[in-house]
Amino acid sequence: MPVESGTCIIETAGLTKRYGDICALAPLDLQVSEGEWLTVMGHSGSGKSTLLNLLGGLDRPTAGRLLVGGEDLLAFSEDHLARFRREAVGIIFQQHHLIPYLTALENVMMAQYFHSVPDQAEARQALERVGLGKRLANRPGELSGGEQQRVCIARAIINSPKLLLGDELTGNLDHKSTRLVMELLKELHEEEHFTLVLVTHNQEVAGWGGRTLFMDDGKLVKDLRHERKGDDPS
Amino acid sequence: MLLRVLKSSLLNRPKAIVLLLLSITMGAAVATAFLGIYGEISHKMALELRSYGANILVEPAAAEDGADLDEADLKKIKTVFWKYNITGFAPYLFGIVDLEAGGKKARGVVTGTWFGKELEVEGEEPSIQGVRVIAPWWDVAGQWPQAADEAIVGVSLARRLGLKAGSEIVAGKNGRSRRFKISGVVTTGGYEEEQLFAPLPTVQGLLAKEGRISRVLVSALTVPMDDFGSRDPATMTKLEYEKWYCTAYVTSVAKNVEEVVAGSRAKPIWQIASAEGSLLKKFNMVMILLTSLALAASAIAVSTSLMASMAERQHEVALMKTLGADRLQVVTIFFGEILIISLIGGVLGYLLGDQLAELVSRIVFSSKIKSPFWLFPTAILAAFAVAAAGSVVPLRRALLIKPVQVLKG
Amino acid sequence: MILARGVTMLLVWAILVMGLARAYAGEKAALTAGCAAGLVAGTIFGFFLFAAVPGEIPFFIIKSALAAAFISLFIVAAIVWYRGTAAEGDRPSVRHAVVAITVFLFAAGYGLLLVCRLPYGTDNSQFMALLLILLAMLGLWMIVYRLEPLLPNIGMAKGGTSLFAVSLLLFIASLSPRLDLFSPLSMKVMKLIHDFVHQFFESMLIPDHPFFRTDIWNYIGLLFSNGVGFWGGLAIWFIPTTGVTLATFREPLPSVAHVRQAAVRRKLIAAQLRERRRRLFFPLFAGLVMAAAAFNSSHPSVEYWDPKPLAVKADSAGEIVLPVKDGDVDLKDGKLHKYLYQKGAQKVRFFALYRSGELTVVLDACSICQPDGYGQNEGTVICYYCKTLIPLETVGKPGGCNPIPVPFAVDGSGVHLSAEMLVNTWVAQVQSEKKLPGGGK
Questions:
Q1: With 50 as the cut, is the pLDDT of residue A4 above it?
Q2: How big is the B-C interface in CB pairs under 8 Å?
Q3: How many domains does chain A have?
Q4: What interface predicted TM-score (ipTM) does this complex get?
Q5: For chain B, give me the number of helices (H) and strands (E)?
Q6: A4 near C CB under 8 A
């Protein structure tokens, strides 16, 4: 059971993002504790992905305060943000976004390379951990959707991030693969103690987390803490 | 890891790589070919213009017709102050005569000269002097005259009179006449093609001008003319005059020659002296312009094909940025790729350009060239330059990619 | 040319001081004092050496010192190879003195070479030396106290400092054919290999059999080719820099096994790798400088070959004898050898040159120009005054801008000249026609 009353890893105050006249994210105040599993739900265009991009340092807010792990992302330069991304954040997207000409192993090692130095043994272990020990030398084109997503997960956790972000990470997967991926995430979450923020519009996925934010039109509508699905044997 | 990424990237995207390689190879090849030809040709031109062409004309100072110089003064040319800079000279004696050959008659110029005379001057080493030394580009079909009654004939005069090697011609003046055996037909590219050339003593006999000559052409090694050299010696101070006199300007060498040939005026043949400089300069300009144009063109080609592949790969760049690659890391990967390709392109371009240069010089200049060693690094550098210049814009574009926009959906 | 020399010298000095400032950051006082003292001491010693010892000996001494420095690099490389390059903990009490003495030695070497690069025998060489030293001091102060904080933070590999400084000194030496170490090194290598092959023959180790012969002869031919000396010399030339570079490169990183989290461990390794890569800078830079020195040495035509005149004296019979072969000096090497004979206030410069298969001796002046002297380039000598190129074959013949020939005799003991004749010819032919203001440069 993750510690929910731990220190704050994400802290925002009046966090706003505008694209021209369109307000993608209304001023948002949010605290997320270390080790929490947070799900953000909403329709397309509700601002949930914008929030995720801001948290991951991929985009800069228009106004407000954004502290991740006690550091103010607004003060960071472009390269400093890049360093923040490779050291503190792991991001998983809906589409798998692997580099097509590299093998599964090399794709994972790429993240190590940007972070510090590649370590093949460690990358192999990470892939074995997500159940891909036999597909190390395969290129993304030779892997199924679920397998590709698991490579992405291995890549995202390889640098031991404090924060793991997932944007509709099961969007392209069938029911069975979704379940496999979610179980994997749960397992990793318990072992690695990272904070997990998932953006989805899949009710089932939301059930795996302990807290769900509902967003609409850039505003936070509801902040709900609830039972976690994976906890009961089903 | 970098090498692994580069290897995979290069081996798995053959189409884009081949395109890029092609543009870089072309650039390097063209640069190599141009520079190879340029180096060889300008060297040859300079050599021919500078060391062989006569650049001083010695004529009688007196203006009236029929004035001439003394043949005996010729030897003194080898004893002047600048004797070591005088690489050769040839005397000429002109006369207008009636020519008759094979029934055809014409008035024409007969010229007596030295073809390749062994000259002995006391206190100096013997040397060969004559037209063969100062005009080595004369192209004789047949033989140079050996005996006193042999002559060579200019190609256009030969055509008019229907002469060829082995025919005979009779030249007559004031009742005296002389029969010459044509040993060869000469092509010179100049006014000489209208003349008949015979050994000097024979022509002196024919024209009744024993021991006399009309002019001397001198070929001298000189230093290029500068502002100081072209000043009028009369206005110089003693110190300046001394410096002028002991600098091998064409004017000072001419003055030197003039002093030993009695009753003469020696003047530089500016056409050659200045043509040499300006011709080489123009040739330089054209070659540099062509080379840089070719390089610029292939840089643009590189840029275009990189732009295209960058559009294909923007997902990749966005992904790398998402994974936390900073600008340096992104640039390292893409520039590394380009560097490897340009290295290969440079080597290929050198090999290709070398062949091209040889082909061009064989077809156009009908001469064989030996490509200098420095062409290889130059080709590699040209390839690097082309690649670097062509990748600036695509790389900037890559750095401006925003992952959020590209990876959306 | 003098100006270009001065600028080159100052540039090298600036690079030297910059490197030392990086190597001994935080030792400003010791660094400045050591450099300044070394420069002055080296220069003064250089002047003293040239004044006190005649002929080729000062060059020999300086060259030997350089060679010793070069050989010591091998020792440095060996030590580094076995002990690793990582900087050790410092003992501050000793450090000031060590830094001061080290930089003193380097700066003194520089000062000595500075003297060699100054034009010889002219009255203003002391003045020029003073000017250069003042400029160098100014640069030293500027670099150490103003520029130093702006320099990138590069760790110095152990042994990197001496590698760096000595390579710069060797570079300066390579600019002057008389001090150059690389050419003699190549020659030595060539000789060694030739001798070795000879010995091999004498002990009949190569079977004289028709089947073997052609093949083996081909290989032997390879050993006798001109390239052997050059490439062999080059290999030796680069051993110290390569050694230190490789030692730095293969040096084991501190263990990080105690760090449990993989990502943190990798970060530590990356930082260590970065630091080690920075330490490679100085050895690699030294390698580049050595390469430049070797290049200079094999392309000496960048400058005209114009050695400093050797001072010669006449014996009691008024005769000057130039030995044809004397240590490193070989009159028959095809290069011009300049000499200076002085009688009272009258100086006579002349040179000997081996060309077209025979020796010739001429004055270092022609009968028309100001006596600025001659320099040698490929196939020609050039008159510095009128810039006329004179083919080597015609040196020794009178007339034109050719150097004035003088009578001489060659026998087993060397070239014999009459001192009186030299002075008379110079006075009669060179100076009589120079009733002009100025006279020389």
A1: no
A2: 43
A3: 1
A4: 0.89
A5: 12, 14
A6: no
